Amino acid sequence: MSTFLDLTQLSAASLAQLDQAQHARQKAANHLEAMAENLSAAEMEGSTASGQLSLTTQVEPLRGVAGNLQQGIFRLVVLGDLKRGKSTLLNARLGERLLPSDVNPCTAVLTVLKYGLQKQVTIHHLDDMPPEKIALEDFKQIYTIGP
Ligand SMILES: Nc1nc2c(ncn2[C@@H]2O[C@H](COP(=O)(O)OP(=O)(O)OP(=O)(O)O)[C@@H](O)[C@H]2O)c(=O)[nH]1
Ligand SMILES: [Mg+2]
C-alpha cells in the first residue's frame, strides 16, 4: 500500500491545504489539552471545596488524543448511506483497489484502514473470540455481501 505522500508531486494549493489541516489539528489538540487542564484544576479545587465530580478518568484520554493529533495520528470517519461510493473514494485515495466495491450492497462490516508493513486483515469479533488474522483476498470473499 503506498501511504507516504510525495510532497514534490503536490501543487501549491494542495500544500496550502495540508498546512491548513495541520494548523486545525494543532488548534484542536490545544483545545483538548486545555480541557484536560481545566478538568484537573476543577477536580483539585473540588476536593477541598464542593467535592469531586470523578472526571479524572477523562483527563488522560483527552491528553492522549491531543498528543496523537499533534503527531498527525487521527481517525477520519467515512460514513454514508448504502452504495454512495465510500469504498470507491477510499480506494481512489489509496491508489489501489483494497476495499471491495460493487453495484450491490457490499461492505458488510465496519472497516478500519491503517498503515502496516504488510497487507493484512485482522478481524475483531464482538464476542470473546480472540482477533483473527486473515489474507486480504479471503476478507474480500468472506466479508462481502453477496448479490
Ligand atoms: N458514476 C459513479 N459511480 C460511482 C462513483 N463512486 C462509486 N461509484 C459506483 O457506485 C457503486 C457503489 O460503490 P461502492 O464504493 O461500493 O459504495 P459503498 O458506499 O462503499 O457501498 P457499501 O459499502 O455497499 O455501502 C460501484 O458500482 C461504484 O463503481 C462515482 O463517483 N460516480
Ligand atoms: Mg463499501
Description:
The mean pLDDT is 86. This protein is 46% helix and 4% strand. The longest helix has 37 residues. Strand 1 and strand 2 form a beta hairpin. Strands 1-2 form a two-stranded antiparallel ribbon. The chain has 2 domains: 64 residues; 57 residues, no CATH class. It contains 4 helices and 2 strands; from the N terminus they run H-H-H-E-E-H. The chain has 147 residues and is mainly α. Bound molecules: guanosine-5'-triphosphate and magnesium ion.
Reported for the largest beta sheet, the result is: 2 strands, antiparallel
- Helix tally equals 4
Low-pLDDT stretches are: none
**N-to-C CA distance:** 28 Å
Descriptors for this entry?
binds magnesium ion, mainly alpha, 4 helices, 2 strands, extended, single chain, 147 residues, 4% strand
Give the topology, please.
Layout: H1 12-48, H2 56-70, H3 86-94, E1 121-123, E2 132-134, H4 136-142
Bound molecules: guanosine-5'-triphosphate and magnesium ion.
